[in-house]
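Exercise: predict the fold of this chain.
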Amino acid sequence: MKLRYLTFTMFCISILMHFTWGYLIPFCETTSIYWYFAKSRQWNPNAKILVLGDSQIVSGILPETIAEIEGLQKEEIIFLPKPSQQPEGILLDTLSLVGKLPHLRKIYVNISPLNTSKNSITDAHKQLYYSFIRPEFFHFTEPLIRKAYYNQLADVCWKLVIQIFPYFGLSSNTNRIFYDPITKEDLSRRRSEFVSIQKSMESQSGAWIWKSLDDVPTLVEGESFPNLDTTVLSGKRDLSIQLWVQCLSEWEKRKLDVVVLRIPFSPQMEKDLAEKNANRVTDSILELMANTPFQNKGVVFDFKTVFLKDYGYFADLTHLNQKGRDAFGNLLKENLLNHSNSSAKGM
């Protein structure tokens, strides 16, 4: 009788959590809010271009820009970057979607030291997967994805707990409300960001200047960042390298064109990356990608040095603002057009 009562109680708690957890999302931090909406993002099965990557693409490129470059309608672009994205998430999206897109012909993706090294974003991405991604069979059968998300039995158990009791997937967000005064003060802005991200999903497929509301966030030359230290980004995460190689293999196997972008960080961060030699691993992967003999076409654009004097192009250390997005869009159009013309002449 007690076991039956306990089982019934747990079942009722689980049902209650599933029906109400969405009401907690406006109190979460920005990345969790974005992933919440991203999991319900609609996409066109007849799309021809798939855009993957992290928040640098979210903030730095519009779907309309890709459509203009490719001579397509906006509806033919699937815009699926997510903040804190890592190569395991990019591989997961590739395996989930590419087989369902018979007209797909090209991938756009960005790479940076944030997704080639072992850092706090790597751990944050794993928790975001547990909180917002519904597991599929291949998550367990694909060796590298299994290694990234389910390397230990505890990982499987934690995912199972969150699937049954979804509040636990938001615990790191909501717990801080009760003891962190800074989080309490930030609740109003979080709710505003919730509305802003929701609107961006409806009108721009999720393209959104990072943490912008009605304001235009802008860095100032000489602005100090005493905690800026990119030393950790100089290290190599072996699993990331393997995952990037696997992504390349999957795109090559499906005969897809690939555009790989190294989107610039702010001048302050790019200078620190250069001083700490933190671009070394990313540069080696970019070189590998540039030399990969794709059956179709693969092109790599390393833009890390293009905005080293343009502080006003950035919303923060890592994201372009609207002015920077416009300038980067023009730069991307120019480079891709020049590349297309030179390829045509070579033929």
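Check your answer against the key: The CA atoms of residues 39 and 133 lie 7 Å apart.
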